[in-house]
Design brief:
Distance between the termini of chain A: 28 Å
Radius of gyration of chain A: 13 Å
Largest sheet of chain A: 4 strands, antiparallel
CATH class of the largest domain in chain B: Alpha Beta
Oligomer: heterodimer
Shape of chain B: globular
Structural class of chain A: alpha+beta
Low-confidence stretches of chain B: none
Number of helices of chain A: 3
Helix content of chain A: 25-40%
Shape of chain A: globular
Mean pLDDT of chain B: 94
Distance between the termini of chain B: 50 Å
Number of domains of chain A: 1
Radius of gyration of chain B: 21 Å
CATH architecture of the largest domain in chain B: Alpha-Beta Barrel
Largest interface: A-B, 22 and 23 residues
Strand order of the largest sheet of chain A: 2-3-1-4
Helix content of chain B: 40-55%
Number of helices of chain B: 14
CATH class of chain A: Alpha Beta
Structural class of chain B: alpha/beta
CATH superfamily of chain A: ACT domain
């Protein structure tokens, strides 16, 4: 199955269950996580994930699911194609 | 190689905090196969060609922007210089064509369509004549049509008859749009050595050496460069250049990746990547503030040109390394109304029209989005254009003039254009006349290319 890679970034006030909520939502949509890093800066939770999205997945569908998490936990979640990051930081 | 956390964060910061954006994807469309002696038939062919070729432009650009998480602010079209289509046309036919272009742009829901243009740096053809006659009305009766005229080049010299006439054309366009503070002039630019693949407005057109359709990308990001410099307050000027170069490299790579994606989805050839630091009125999205960060108390003071030269060159170097197809204008724009720092420089009497003129010797274009006294004589406007043409001609670079005489306003007044065009303090021209120079007419010969001192 062909998959596209994306960077998921999550930023918001630190609270219990952010990773659980985000990864559950991703798993619901068959999104595979390849790498996670996270840090807390002045009470602000920041997480970056490298993920694989199934090719047949409608982007809207995934975005809507992530919007549910971001509104219920007051987070900012963005999903961006990995190629953008690769082209900026790798020659 | 895996991306580091900091690298992902840097990209996201650039987009979300520092306003990195793809300023425009501009589709160039040749209209040469639409030429028809019957004006109605030609207009129909033009409309069909544009709306077919760019049918998916907006949707595809928006979709790509969403997937990559980087905004594409404007979607634009550049066409064959319209004068090439107007050899047998009347002024009314030309106005009809301008309206058709406007309708096509509206139908496609794109921001601007450029190329209501003529290249007259050596002389004026029948089609050019028709276009020049129609320009003031065409600009003031349409909302998305942009025009340009090439009045000089290093190889041909300066067509002073055209320059003289352009002074009157700009005045007339301003008068016809007096209810909008002369806004029609914001959609018109006079060039020396124009770039035939420039994706930025008002000067975009699809040059004669271009393919049938082509997609070019303009990327901006003064905010990103400013933030990068703020992290190196003690760097010497060599290091400053390096910081700008590295930042320009990253921005260009991002733009090219996204631009190529849009082009491939549309099945159109990728043209060029134009990295131009183009300011907006958003906070910290200012070219003037970069110059101030380099070390000026206020833009316009002594040292401004040195700082601008350093910045413009570093931007080009970073861009040229990042993309094989750098083109267009690539460098820094210094529009006044779109740059809060430039506006402040003028308000605080640090930045003058003369200094802006000198700055155009080392930046990528020219006198841009400058509001001038509505009562300025057309010969003085023509004189201002002639000076700018001379700077471009001698220095073998693109220069341009986009000035807006604001009806019923004079020096010191403030004028609001709205949107991306911003607001500008009205500036006065030199009160002494240039009339005799213009009355002489003729052509200033092309300059010597050797003995350059």
């Amino acid at each position: 199955m062909s998959r596209t890679r994306a960077v998921v970034s999550v930023v918001g006030q630190d609270q219990v269950g952010i990773i659980a909520a985000v990864t559950t939502a991703l798993a619901d949509k068959q999104v595979n996580i390849l790498d996670i890093s996270q840090t807390i800066l002045q009470d602000f939770f920041t997480m970056m994930m490298l993920v694989e999205i199934p090719e047949h997945m409608e982007r809207r569908e995934l975005e809507e699911r992530m919007d549910q998490v971001s509104s219920s936990m007051q987070l900012k979640i963005d999903i961006q194609r990995e190629e953008l990051f690769q082209s900026m930081h790798r020659i | 190689m895996r991306l580091a956390f900091q690298e992902m964060q840097e990209t996201i910061r650039m987009i979300q905090m520092e306003k990195l954006d793809i300023r425009t994807v501009t589709m160039g469309i040749s209209l040469r196969d639409c030429i028809d002696p019957d004006p109605a038939a030609m207009q129909r062919l033009v409309y069909e060609k544009i709306t077919t070729a760019a049918a998916g432009l907006k949707e595809t650009a928006d979709e790509t922007a969403r997937e990559f998480g980087i905004p594409i602010v404007n979607k634009r079209i550049a066409i064959t210089p319209a004068a090439e289509l107007l050899g047998r046309a009347t002024k009314d036919d030309a106005l009809g064509l301008a309206r058709v272009l406007d309708q096509a742009a509206e139908e496609l829901d794109i921001d601007f369509i450029g190329g209501f243009s003529a290249l007259v740096h050596k002389g004026i053809t029948k089609g050019d004549r028709v276009l020049l006659d129609a320009l003031p009305e065409a600009l003031s009766s349409t909302s998305r049509v942009c025009g340009s005229v090439s009045a000089a080049s290093t190889r041909a010299g300066i067509n002073m008859d055209a320059v003289h006439e352009l002074g009157s054309i700009i005045k007339r366009a301003s008068e016809l749009s007096s209810d909008q503070d002369g806004l029609a002039c914001a959609k018109f630019v006079v060039f020396c050595n124009p770039a035939e693949d420039n994706p930025f407005m008002a000067g975009a057109f699809h040059g004669t050496g271009e393919a049938e359709t082509v997609l070019s990308v303009g990327v901006s990001g003064p905010g990103v460069v400013l933030s990068a410099l703020k992290r190196h307050p003690e760097a010497d000027l060599g290091e400053v250049s390096e910081v700008i170069k590295q930042t320009a490299f990253k921005i260009t790579r991002a733009g090219e990746r996204v631009g190529r994606e849009v082009a491939s989805r549309l099945g159109v050839e990728f043209g060029i990547m134009d990295l131009s630091l183009a300011p907006t009125n958003a906070m910290n999205d200012s070219v003037a503030e970069i110059l101030e960060e380099i070390g000026l108390e206020r833009v316009g003071t002594h040292g401004t040109i040195a700082a601008l030269a350093l910045m413009n060159d570093a931007v080009k170097k970073g861009g040229a390394m990042a993309s094989s197809y750098v083109g267009g204008l690539s460098g820094a724009f210094i529009p006044v109304s779109e740059d809060n720092g430039m506006i402040r420089g003028i308000e605080e009497n640090s930045l003058s029209l003369d200094k802006l003129e000198a700055m155009t010797c080392v930046c990528s274009v020219g006198l841009d989005m400058i509001a001038i006294n509505g009562s300025s004589p057309s010969a003085s406007i023509a004189g201002l254009i002639a000076d700018e043409m001379a700077i471009g001609m001698i220095n073998k670079k693109t220069t341009a003039v986009r000035v807006i005489p604001v009806p019923d306003k004079s020096e010191g007044d403030m004028v609001e254009f709205g949107g991306l065009l911003g607001r500008a303090p009205v500036m006065g021209l030199n009160p002494h006349s240039s009339e005799k120079l213009m009355q002489r007419g003729g052509r200033i010969p092309a300059p010597l290319q050797s003995l350059i001192n």
